[in-house]
Amino acid sequence: MVANGDEPLKPAGDSDAESDEAYGLRRLNQRDVEEIYRRHRRFLRGKTGGARANLSLTDISYLDLTGLDFTNAEMNGARLFRTKLRGASLSCANLFAADLREADLCGADLCRVDLRGACLRGADLSAAQVVDADLRDGMMLKPGRSGELKAVTYDNRSTDGSRAFMRAANLSHSKMANSFVVQTDLTDTILRNVKLMRADLSHSNLTGANLEGADLTDAIFTGAIFRGAILTSAILNNTKLDSADLSGALFDVASLAKADTSGAKLPRSLESLDSELGQILAAHLLWIDTGGKSGRRADLSSVDLTGQDLSRVNLAAAELEGAVLKGADLSGSILTMARMPFADMREVKLAGADLRGANLMRATLIHADLSNCRGGPVDLRGATIQQWPTTLEHARLIGATLSGGGFPKAVLIKANFGRAKLTDLDLSGADLRDADFTGAVLTGVNFGGADLRGTRGLSKDEEWSRAES
After folding, report:
1. What is the CB-side half-sphere exposure of residue 436 using CA atoms within 13 A?
2. Which CATH class is domain 267-469?
């Protein structure tokens, strides 16, 4: 948004003390930036008349830079308050101490960017690529009016990513030591091998985030949400996870022991339950047989059931949210309408299980055996008949075996079938939007009527099969 097509509007809340003159910033309008960009493109292509874009210590707030290529540009200390950078390329750019508050960076390429000391408060980096970037603390100094050196900061805080939106962004291998990222949405963010030493991510949402191999030494995650997050191989030396929600999170027990988990939501042991497992299952079966008049519905939410033999057990409509079922045997079990979101079901045996109407949203089924599973919808009879589908939205089915049986009309949005084996499987009418089949082996899969928009990893043969169905 530009006033009179020329001067950018002042950011809301900016005071005279924060004026561009005080910071020594040079105001640029849309035409100025477009001319700089024209020369920058020639520079990137190695053509005569080109020049690297230098937007350092400029104010380009509110301008529209959507989709532009500012690779290797100089932007240190620049103000980009609410600037539109959606889908832009800023790889290898210098954004040291830049003001990116509330900027739109959705889908932008920020790989190997220098963001030290940058302010990202309220910025939207959803689905952005921020691989190998530097988001560590930093401070830019400039001469004041009396010749003294003054720090360039925004609201007296540098390296601030608080209240930013980073859903599904890729920050692998980035450096974020000492950064301030409280109350930030990091849902499904890839943070593999990231350096987060001494960073403050208190009360941030890391649901489904991948922090495999991340260094979280002395980092603060007080009250943070890690539901279904991956923390395997993460370094958790003196990490503050107090009051954090770790339901369904994957972690190494030995590493977690080095962290402060006081008040955190963690898996419960069988010994902590009021009754023995056999008694709970018997009471649940009575609850089913009497239509809820006697017995008691099984609630095994967040219970550690690693390696348990639950084959041919009736757990219909049971509560298993966040349960740890790693390596458990559920072959032939009845799990109709069971609630199992965020369950850790790595290497679980589900051959021949009844999963009709079950909720396995964000469940981890890596290397699970789902051969001959029944995963169709359940008819709910009332004034009208409604169908309750099996839900595997965001489920991790990497390396899983799905042969025979099927999941017709199932909700499989953003499910990950990477390297899975799908043989003679019925997925007719399933919602597979944005599902990932990268590396999967598919033989005789029925995609008839399925919604395959945005899917990845399907070969031309599967595309042809879809077109013919």
Report:
1. 13
2. mainly beta
